Amino acid sequence: MEENLTLKRQISTGIILRNKPVLAFYSSRNRTLQNLPQLLRSNTWRRSLIKTLAQILSTTGLYKLLPLSSNGTKLIDCLNSVSNTPVSSCLMTWQGDTQRKRIYGYAYLGDSDKPVFVKYGEGEANANLFQNETDALKVINDGKYQFSTTHLITSKISKEESILVSECLPHTAKNIQPSTFQLPPELLALSTNKREITPSELSRQKWWSEYEKIARKAAPEFYKKTASTLKLTSSITTTTCHGDAGSENIFSADSGLLVIDWERYSSTAPLLTDPVGYWLGINHTLIANSPAIEASRIKQWANLKKYKTSDIIFALSYLISCNFRPAIQIAEKFVKNKA
Question: N or C: where does the chain have the smaller number of CB atoms within 10 Å of the terminal CB?
């Protein structure tokens, strides 16, 4: 059996589902598939892979081995261009939603037995997100905060294609299990970097134009409320934020709290962006089913925390600019709810 799983030099295989490639394994030498457990120590990666395999098992007959697609070849070539050591093997997957033009992978470089995490994307949108994460990874691990993130190894960012190579999560890392709606205090420390800006400065923020584009169509009443709130506001408190501080991106590790996925990082986000995003993330299923009820609940939560309504509105605006679905779903009900 093991002999049958051995991948000969320069042989690449993968799996397609409903005519779309979802998983591929590349090897430039005689590595075997028994290496895969080492690649699957990340909880996030394992969850994605298990979901993929579950889909395959539920659609018997719609999968087969195939040569590595052109998408996978692009990742390998790009990774080789930024690494001093050539790729010896890589397990990768890409989303069925091809609009994002994303590939994720775990790779071995050269003779190393320690895999790296690879994220590849095409286009300007991915370039902007990858630049955000690169900026974050360079500053978060400077010892200032009581949490850490994976270290950036190398990167390449351009409008054509971008790639980030970073450390893998330690195999002992586990997703935190939220017991309250309160953002972990270690992450709350990000909001100590406060800066007051004027409404005109806010409107010049790069994320604001994206918010307006989305909100005009997806949440028109909320958009009007934001505009009227701005007219009554002399200044807006901004701070550093993660931007996607859901529990799926927060891990408990031997070294303490470890936070990943900094694509929505900003040093000029509204004050309550991360606390509101965390609350929405925990309640995302309830919001999808009953947005009006959850709009009332988030107002009650905000009153309990003595948060200003305007700060909640601006935080929702930032999260909408990130296309964060729970924020879009709750926004209209939030401005209509009188609780």
Answer: N
